[in-house]
Amino acid sequence: MDISVNRESLEAMRVFDLATTPLRELNSALHAIAPGTNDTNFEVVNPRGSHAVAVGIDQPVTVDVRGSVGYYCAGMNDGGTVTVHGSAGPGVAENMMSGTVVIEGDASQYAGATGRGGLLVIKGNAASRCGISMKGIDIVVHGSIGHMSAFMGQSGHLVVLGDAGDALGDSLYEAKLFVRGTVKSLGADCIEKEMRSEHREKLAELLERAGVTDVSPTEFKRYGSARKLYNFNIDNAEAY
Amino acid sequence: MSYHNPYTPPRKSATFDDYTLAEIRRAAATGIYDIRGAGTKRKVPHFDDLLFLGASISRYPLEGYREKCDTTVVLGSRFAKRPITLKTPITIAGMSFGALSGNAKEALGRGATIAGTSTTTGDGGMTDEERGHSQTLVYQYLPSRYGMNPKDLRRADAIEVVVGQGAKPGGGGMLLGQKISDRVANMRNLPKGIDQRSACRHPDWTGPDDLEIKILELREITDWEKPIYVKVGGARPYYDTALAVKAGADVVVLDGMQGGTAATQDVFIENVGMPTLACIRPAVQALQDLGMHRKVQLIISGGVRSGADVAKALALGADAVAIGTAALVAIGDNDPHWEEEYQKLGTTAGAYDDWHEGKDPAGITTQDPELMKRLDPIAAGRRLANYLKVMTLEAQTIARACGKNHLHNLEPEDLVALTLEASAMAQVPLAGTSWIPGKGGF
């Protein structure tokens, strides 16, 4: 990739070439950002599947990653805007607190795992366990998602424009799931629920934030917890 | 001649003993397995089955109170920029706010701080109280990730990635509805009053290769400052230790089956995992085989009660120990002072283990505001500090008698075993012999 264009605007954009610069320098620079500084635009080139790229951001910085990343990109992001111009490995935006993470390509397993806030947009497909144990994050997947997605999801929203794999929402708590395409199967204690006006409004807002303009909330079905497993009953044991 | 059948007393089955019969009836009546707190109650080979030899003509002792026996321990010296230094190798094990009351967590922090050691969060996140009252606080990174956030990661002194615990290797957490108060529910992002069953596997990694990357991520988030521990239950200590080292751990925490839990199935506690005594030597062997003994520190927990237990664990190769149940007892758990109330709960002081029900008369394993008030965190913290200091002094007493000027200089050669089982597990000779089962060809 030719990064000369970016270097011309070096004053506004700090460029980290991971082919020649250790990962530590990138994350260290991101953590050294002082609150209120103007020096908030970062570009990462040659990520070449590196793990833990742009993790632990705690300021409203913007990071553009030119290429594909490995595990845990933007892990625990708190306020940053991270865009991966490629695909992401497992656990992208895991435990995100706030901010926005956009994956232009596909995402591997556990995308948005345990996320507490912020918005994760995956423009391609996401693999299994997307949104596992989600705790408040909003996830919008333009494509389809794999099996066991939103497993034990506690809160937040998972929006899927394509299809969902097996066992969607297994052992779900209060996370809300919206799927436009087919659902191969629902997990234990996950049921289809009525789509009321407040859900359509929320969905419209999420689609807008995710840059989806050509899809109507009316095309989706809503899934949530039947809440039958909230307190143990021996007669429900076969659900497991 | 008439024959009189002589009286024979009724004979109860050893297999179907009174407790077993009662358990069958209880299961049949309730339709649920027994859930309880604490660790295994069965008798297993333990530190009691080992003795120190002390000094003799070939070894000379150090003077008590005059010649120094150092007890400091440094944890996290492998990779962390800021390893932690403790005055005593006795740490406080992870116990959650939620399982324990806020006052109990505060007491643990206070006691550990006075004694110069660390305390540990649990499956529920870090509270301001425990951070404020703990000079050195280890932050657990658990499968549930309840309360996990980068700010608390950064204000911790060390991070402990929990893979398993001795009471339930392979099992997740359990906190039943009675203890999910508003505050606990909020910290865990859960509805109030539901039964909360934490996952047993981490949501975003599987296996040692993933763990290595997860540890890298945690180090990057915290700028390589914090020691990273990996905690495992006593299942396959040789391989678990080796894999934790391979994954990049600074410290391995190994918890035997006597280690407690806030709540899990009794069948799990009593039938899964190995005794602490059986875990230590394989773990130490793994470290030695990798050339990492004393470079990656080993913390042993599960049934540590006295300075003698500490000294024995260290002599077998551990760098430090952790206490959980014993610390709770020190701050007031199962105290006979509350006997009348234990009786009302159908139990007795010393046997109370229904910690999941939230009715603890001592105000420790509860979220009930009235019961919680019974525990004065300052006085309880002082008791814990006293206990930690006594244990440290006891361990020093033994170490001096063995001629050691640091607890870490204790060695397996200072020990003998009273039983064949303990001899085989601890790999020290049966007392009065030079025989270690499994060594020397038979």
Describe the structure.
- The complex is a heterodimer of chains A (240) and B (442).
- Chain A is an alpha/beta fold and 240 residues long.
- Chain A folds into two domains: 1-117, no CATH class; 125-229, no CATH class.
- Chain A is built from three helices and eleven strands; from the N terminus they run H-E-H-E-E-E-E-E-E-E-E-E-H-E.
- An eleven-stranded mixed beta sheet of chain A has the order 1-2-3-4-5-6-7-8-9-11-10, sandwiched between helices.
- In chain A, helix 2 links the parallel strand 1 and strand 2.
- Residues 1-10 of chain A have low confidence and may be disordered.
- With 442 residues, chain B is an alpha/beta fold.
- Chain B has a single domain, classed as Aldolase class I (TIM Barrel), CATH 3.20.20.70.
- Chain B is 34% helix and 13% strand.
- Chain B is built from 15 helices and 16 strands.
- Chain B has helices at residues 18-30, 102-115, 128-133, 150-155, 182-188, 207-221, 237-247, 266-271, 276-289, 307-315, 325-331, 339-344, 369-372, 377-401, 420-426, and strands spanning 35-36, 50-52, 73-75, 84-86, 90-92, 118-120, 136-141, 158-162, 174-175, 196-197, 228-233, 251-255, 264-265, 297-301, 320-323, 415-417.
- The longest helix of chain B has 25 residues, at 377-401.
- The radius of gyration of chain B is 22 Å and the shape is globular.
- The relative contact order of chain B is 0.17.
- The A-B interface holds A 23-24, 27-28, 31, 51-52, 55-56, 58, 70-72, 75-76, 78, 90-91, 94-95, 97, 109-110, 113-114, 116, 129, 132-133, 135-136, 151-152, 154-155, 173-174, 230-232, 234-235 and B 31-32, 144-145, 148-151, 153, 176-177, 188-191, 193-195, 199, 203-205, 210, 213-214, 216-217, 220-224.
